[in-house]
Write a structure and sequence with these properties.
Length: about 280
């Protein structure tokens, strides 16, 4: 059976999915045609149910449940992994005027946007751009501050940017849960047997990746060319963890909490009482 799959080119995704995409494990008769896209592009594609399986921002999940269920394996949750609000000229959030400060964010449907809104709802002037352009927008004073994600959290300081807030810390203090950043969804009309098989294959791909952790696979290196291997490894170590193997009860509770709070930014359409997780 052939299935379409959307993931990002970030090291955590290419690390997780490498084995199942390149014949390194038994995929139980499943074949995957993959697309590599920025996560906000994947969020928008998921709004119309374009792909069979896809990585998305958990911040967009409320809008996507009409098409998808959340798989247990493959996602990015954790403690100390949250987006950072950074600036070039300011050293404290109090120096920014909520009425006039322009904030760059990596997409309207990203978890980063949701976490920023929950922490600083009075800031209204937002512009959205691919995550890898935000550092430069802040440095060039195109914006007053920006919310950075992924590998930029490892490099912002050496580029002269200052951290104004760790949005992940604020989430953890407020809820006590790990931060649900990105999840893997699969079409909800697939029967339970297929959904469980997909989940099992992803988990086995992760286990293969962990068991061969000594070297980075070519798939990771090829799509993270602007990063040093040190940063790639930091990225993987931070975002691929036990919650990637399986959400567990704590991970699911974190996702439920995010869904509850997400209504503040993206109200859930009426009559959308869908099962969230693959059983």
């Amino acid at each position: 059976m052939k299935l379409s799959l959307g993931i990002s080119p970030c090291p955590n995704d290419t690390f997780i999915f490498d084995a199942m995409l390149h014949g390194k494990i038994d995929t139980e008769g499943l074949q995957f045609e993959y697309r590599l896209e920025d996560v906000e592009t994947l969020n928008k594609m998921a709004l119309t149910g374009e792909l069979d399986i896809t990585k998305v921002s958990y911040g967009a999940l409320a809008r996507l449940m009409v098409h998808y269920k959340v798989l247990d394996a493959g996602g990015a949750l954790g403690l100390g992994v949250g987006p950072l609000l950074v600036s070039h000229h300011c050293a404290d959030i109090s120096e920014l005027d909520p009425a006039s400060a322009i904030i760059a964010l990596p997409g309207a449907y990203t978890t980063a946007h949701l976490l920023f809104h929950l922490s600083y709802p009075s800031f209204q002037k937002k512009i959205f751009m691919p995550f890898h352009l935000i550092e430069e927008a802040v440095l060039s004073s195109e914006v007053h501050a920006g919310v950075i994600i992924h590998e930029n959290r490892f490099t912002y300081a050496e580029r002269g940017l200052k951290k104004l807030a760790d949005l992940g810390d604020k989430w953890e203090q407020k809820t006590g849960f790990p931060i649900p950043l990105g999840g893997i969804l699969s079409k909800r009309h697939f029967d339970g047997t297929l959904l469980r098989k997909i989940n099992r294959v992803i988990r086995n791909s992760i286990e293969y990746a962990f068991s061969h952790r000594a070297t980075l696979p070519p798939f990771v290196l090829e799509h993270a060319q602007s990063m040093s291997e040190s940063v790639m490894n930091q990225h993987i170590d931070l975002y691929v963890n036990e919650y990637s193997r399986g959400l567990g009860s704590n991970g699911r509770a974190a996702v439920w909490k995010l869904l509850e709070l997400a209504a503040a930014l993206h109200p859930v359409p009426q009559n959308s009482n869908f099962a969230v997780f693959v059983d």
